[in-house]
What we know:
The protein is mainly alpha-helical. It has helices spanning 6-9, 13-16, 20-66, 73-97, 99-126, 134-160.
Amino acid sequence: xxxxxxxxxxxxxxxxxxxxxxxxxxxxxxxxxxxxxxxxxxxxxxxxxxxxxxxxxxxxxxxxxxxxxxxxxxxxxxxxxxxxxxxxxxxxxxxxxxxxxxxxxxxxxxxxxxxxxxxxxxxxxxxxxxxxxxxxxxxxxxxxxxxxxxxxxxxxxxxxx
Length: 161
């Protein structure tokens, strides 16, 4: 399943057997999955880049402050202060924007959507979606994911404001 585009999925027998409402529900699941997959990657790169940047700056700062024979003390202090300010700035950015929490949230939502998508496909292939109310279960799960996400951001905005 992973790696298939929506156009490839639309040509599969199990998808063609679905009515319009069920196809729409799967397209929503697929759309949200693709979005949160992208968010997961974006925040993972941001977190790793900021952590690596702080690590490198800290290491360089330690080296500069430790080589008294090669750099004058005045330059050591100047470079040390500049690097310390950069380290403080990037650490504050990581803390303020809390990219790691966003990344973890997106991973959790992404996993939930993986399960939802795989269960939908299994039920579609097994013919279980023809039973009354089965498609509504998936729509309700999607709505619950959306509501949890909206509630999270509303609480986050209240904390900021």
